[in-house]
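pinging the channel bc i need a second pair of eyes. not urgent but kinda urgent?? the chain im working w is below, pasted from the shared doc
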Amino acid sequence: KINLNHVAIVAQYLAIVSVLSENKGNRSKAAKALGVNRKTLYNKMKAFEKLQKADARLQKIEKPQKDGKRH
């Protein structure tokens, strides 16, 4: 199933990573290039970080260990 919210978040993440790379990690320049203010860029990056941590925790829970039990 395709979730449009997920697609939008991934697209934003890829755009931010690309523009940050082009601007050598300069967040102010990246925000300007993306047409958002610096605070918006920081908030989006923080949200991506939270999603990645939640995803990592979920994968750890869903992945069975060698003893066959889920942890």
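so Helices lie at 4-22, 27-34, 38-62. and The CA atoms of residues 24 and 30 lie 9 Å apart. — does that match what u expected or am i reading it wrong
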